[in-house]
User: Which sequence fits this backbone?
């Protein structure tokens, strides 16, 4: 959780606001939650991962969404090129593999889950998103 928390703060994912300001703008903040996953490493160790996700299924106002997806045939073609030319392949594991794109709309507000209030040392539980999070319809 600390890694995810630090990553979100370093990437300037949101700005804090207060519930009163959100009510004045007549926006309904979308909830969020922590999702936990247990990963078993090849050496037998266990790694625990946490991810903050927004409850995007409750999102009502959004434009068109698009997510580019690589096809398996493209991957196979690249692997055949590697074999043909004798190139080397390296594997890379990125901690924050999802790069959060900027949010086009200015009115996406999110309620932080419990535990963040104490960490941020603020009274606000509503934040305005600057970049997309997992679960948001605009996340590509």
Assistant:
């Amino acid at each position: 959780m600390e890694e995810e928390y630090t990553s979100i703060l370093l990437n300037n994912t949101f700005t804090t606001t207060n519930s009163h300001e959100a009510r004045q703008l007549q926006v309904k903040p979308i909830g969020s939650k922590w999702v936990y996953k247990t990963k078993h490493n090849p050496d037998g160790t266990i790694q625990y991962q946490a991810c903050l996700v927004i409850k995007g299924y409750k999102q009502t106002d959004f434009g068109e969404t698009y997510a580019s997806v690589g096809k398996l045939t493209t991957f196979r073609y690249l692997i055949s090129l590697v074999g043909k030319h004798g190139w080397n392949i390296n594997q890379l594991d990125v901690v924050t593999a999802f790069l959060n794109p900027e949010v086009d709309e200015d009115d996406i507000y999110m309620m932080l889950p419990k535990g963040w209030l104490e960490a941020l040392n603020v009274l606000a539980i509503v934040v305005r998103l600057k970049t997309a999070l997992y679960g948001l319809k605009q996340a590509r």
Q: What stands out?
A: The chain has a mean pLDDT of 77. Helices lie at 2-10, 19-24, 72-85, 116-120.
